[in-house]
Amino acid sequence: MRKLPARYATVLTPFILTGVMTCVVSGISTLASLGFGAHLVLPWMRAWALSWLVAFPLMYFMLPVVRRVVSLFVHER
After folding, report:
1. pLDDT tens-digit map of 4-51
2. Residue 68 and residue 61: Cα distance in Å, rounded?
3. CA distance 48 to 30
């Protein structure tokens, strides 16, 4: 399998991280709202799409800021 160049890691990391995170959180939220059943999947997918649409750009642009803030509290290696 061919791999992407390392420079893509800065985009791929928040893309995958937000995809997983928003899937789980929107699933839990939708389940809590609607209960378990066949009617759960479509609202969950809509909620997931919308939340991912917001979360990915937010994470992409905020990650460098968060790293700087974290560096104020931890020792560098």
Report:
1. 999 999 999 999 999 999 999 999 999 999 999 989 999 999 999 999
2. 12
3. 9
Measuring CA to CA, how many Å separate 53 from each of 13, 60, 69, 75? Answer: 15, 12, 25, 34
Q: Within a domain: residue 10? A: no
Supply the pTM of this predicted model: 0.82
Q: Identify the residue whose tokens are 């509290």.
A: 73
Structural domain count, the chain? 1
Residues for the chain: how many in total?
A: 77
- Taking 3-state DSSP, the helix, strand and coil percentages for the chain, each rounded to the nearest 5, stand at 80, 0, 20
